[in-house]
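Retry 2 of 3 after timeout on previous attempt. Resubmitting structure tokens to design endpoint.
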């Protein structure tokens, strides 16, 4: 910190040396005057030191003189020892749902949209070569052959009116939006349906258990009371994992033990939901049994047991699909749908996948609403599916 010396500072500084001289003179008995009282010689030294210190520009000791104009003194912030040890978290505003979606779809943007737009960038007009390249590229993405041709036929039909790369991408976007919009239909919980029963199915590792936790979290935030039943009795760890989540989101929980009959766990869950007056029952199921047929039979049995006890239930058979498996998700949908009659889809792990384009294939091939998309591991990283927002984020549209 720089200070400008005032005339008083120079005077005090000089005065300090006068007292220093008096100190030395007193010791040598050569004082030029007779002191009024017997003053000890060290007192001259003390005054000399005090005046000298006062004149030195040390912040805190010598605060009288103003800082040089235009010079901004540095702020010295006092850091307590415990604060110094722990780095302060930088408070960033929480990203909006839109930002999160955009970030979650960035890999799919690269793996799907960028590949298509690269074709159009090679030529301004849709000549035969470009159309051929587009056909190959679309078939090579994760949307499945059938959907690749749905989109390709649309572009080919409109080729005359497409003049440049931007118009071509707009046409692709229009077609994808049309396909996805048909599948936008959030779960609705009618007042008179209580408890509303959601049976969650899907292969191991697709994200069933965490998706159940996220749905329970959303419903709890909407003021619904939720109970979760652990119907994945194939592994003890699966039951514990679900209990942990139920606890964390504040949902009631029906525990089971490894090897228990899944349909009787679902039955117990239903009975508890009815007697305890819960709004929603969510049932976890196994994603793997000894054989695939075995698994499907078990799931069908659970469905029958629920319907018998509470006619019309399960009201939602939610299939959880992992976006990282790309086109295989289309085949999984077919198998689960044939066996169970899937009524809704949750596509998870879009954030970790460049193969999220598969959602367009699923939407095009099955008349099953897409209820949710998973874009991360946090509780609010499960978003209700909204086609327009999804397409907006997928194409990285700027406002
Ligand atoms: N990045 C990411 N990970 C997810 C998402 N959904 C689930 N997971 C992770 O996928 C793994 C398997 O999930 P889990 O719910 O246990 O699958 P389950 O076997 O079907 O019950 C876990 O590590 C989850 O945290 C998602 O949307 N994004
Ligand atoms: Mg699980």
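Retry 2 succeeded. Sequence:
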């Amino acid at each position: 910190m720089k200070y400008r010396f005032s005339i008083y500072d120079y005077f005090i500084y000089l005065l300090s040396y006068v007292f220093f001289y008096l100190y030395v003179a007193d010791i040598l008995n050569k004082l030029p005057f007779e002191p009024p009282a017997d003053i000890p010689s060290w007192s001259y030294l003390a005054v000399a030191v005090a005046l000298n210190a006062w004149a030195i520009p040390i912040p805190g000791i010598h605060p009288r003189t103003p800082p040089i104009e235009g010079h901004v003194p540095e702020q010295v912030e006092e850091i307590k020892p415990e604060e110094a040890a722990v780095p302060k978290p930088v408070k960033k505003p929480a990203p909006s749902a839109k930002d999160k979606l955009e970030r979650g779809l960035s890999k799919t943007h690269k793996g799907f949209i960028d590949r298509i737009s690269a074709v159009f960038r090679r030529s301004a007009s849709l000549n035969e070569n470009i159309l051929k390249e587009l056909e190959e590229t679309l078939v090579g993405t994760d949307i499945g052959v059938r959907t690749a041709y749905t989109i390709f036929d649309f572009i080919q039909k409109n080729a005359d009116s497409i003049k440049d790369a931007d118009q071509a991408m707009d046409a692709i976007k229009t077609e994808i939006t049309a396909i996805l919009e048909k599948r936008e239909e959030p779960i609705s919980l009618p007042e008179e349906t209580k408890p509303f029963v959601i049976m969650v199915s899907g292969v191991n590792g697709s994200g069933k258990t965490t998706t159940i936790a996220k749905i329970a979290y959303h419903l709890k935030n909407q003021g619904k009371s939720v109970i979760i039943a652990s119907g994945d009795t194939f592994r003890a760890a699966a039951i514990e994992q679900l209990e942990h989540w139920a606890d964390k989101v504040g949902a009631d929980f029906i525990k089971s033990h490894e090897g228990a009959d899944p349909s009787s766990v679902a039955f117990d869950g239903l009975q508890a939901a009815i007697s305890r007056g819960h709004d929603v029952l969510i049932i976890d199921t196994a994603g793997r049994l000894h054989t695939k047929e075995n698994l499907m039979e078990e799931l069908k049995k659970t469905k029958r047991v629920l319907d018998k006890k509470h006619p019309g239930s399960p009201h939602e058979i939610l299939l959880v699909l992992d976006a990282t498996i790309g086109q295989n998700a289309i085949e999984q949908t077919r198998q689960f749908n044939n066996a169970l009659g899937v009524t809704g889809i949750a596509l998870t792990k879009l954030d970790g996948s460049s193969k999220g384009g598969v959602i367009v294939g699923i939407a095009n091939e099955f008349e099953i609403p897409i209820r949710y998309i998973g874009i991360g591991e946090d509780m609010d990283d499960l978003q209700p599916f909204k086609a327009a927002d999804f397409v907006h984020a997928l194409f990285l549209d700027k406002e």
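Attempt log closed. The longest strand covers residues 316-322.
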